[in-house]
Design a protein that fits this description.
Elements: E1 8-9, E2 12-13, H1 15-23, E3 30-31, E4 44-45, H2 59-64, H3 67-83
Antiparallel strand pairs: 1-2, 3-4
């Protein structure tokens, strides 16, 4: 079990950024920009913006992976860091 948090949110990425983002009197909800939302009933969302996947992985790997994987791996990395664990603490066959 990992006891750590790894927030990757529209209000901030990482604990400190999220905390600061929640204190700002501004809503992160805006018109969707990552895809064309016109086929859907709602065209607004709280998107994760200013996200750089190469902060969490090699550029070559980032180019081959989809955005949802980028966000998942970033959250995992942040949670491991918060828990004080390195990637070598993970047991791949468990």
């Amino acid at each position: 079990m990992i006891t750590g948090i790894g927030p990757v949110t529209s209000s901030g990425i990482g604990i400190e950024a999220l905390s600061a983002g929640l204190r700002v009197p501004r809503s992160p909800i805006a018109r969707v920009t990552h895809f064309d939302p016109s086929p859907f009933r709602s065209t607004i969302a709280a998107e994760v913006t200013d996200f750089d996947p190469t902060r969490f992985m090699e550029p070559k790997r980032a180019r081959r992976l989809d955005r949802f994987i980028h966000l998942t791996l970033a959250g995992t990395r942040l949670a491991l860091d918060d828990a004080g664990l390195g990637a070598d603490a993970l047991v791949p066959d468990r």
